[in-house]
Amino acid sequence: MALNELDPASALAQAQRLKRSVDRRSRWVVRYQLAYGTVSFAMVLALGLLRGPLGIAVSMAIWMPAIGVLSVYAARQPVAHRGMAVTHGVMIGIWAMLYGLVLGVGITFFRGDLAWWLPGAALVALPGFGAACVTARRVRV
Fold it and tell me: In this predicted model, what pLDDT tens digit does every residue of 50-77 receive, in sequence order?
């Protein structure tokens, strides 16, 4: 029976069941966002602390496979909660600005300085962790 064929109370109950189901099956987004933040932290730290080509090689050895795995993981998920695309876009936009700022200043003035790169890596990881908190609240993890 279609939703438009149900009485209002039954239709509302069915809609609430569907929302709970979508929320439950959308919890993968929280794991994705936490992984994104964690990998961002490791990649920025490696890039900042390891000199020259070694820093680039190690950071890309962390970043590229992780982004590939996360992309495949996301593409294989059957559902995503309402607003996920906006949350993801904001997360990526803020991440890109912070990444550019931390790398631009760090490479110019603080190459190899743990006092810059440790908090800088944490700052770059924050959008992933913050988005995970927002998503967890939305899908009631």
Answer: 988 999 999 999 999 999 999 999 999 8
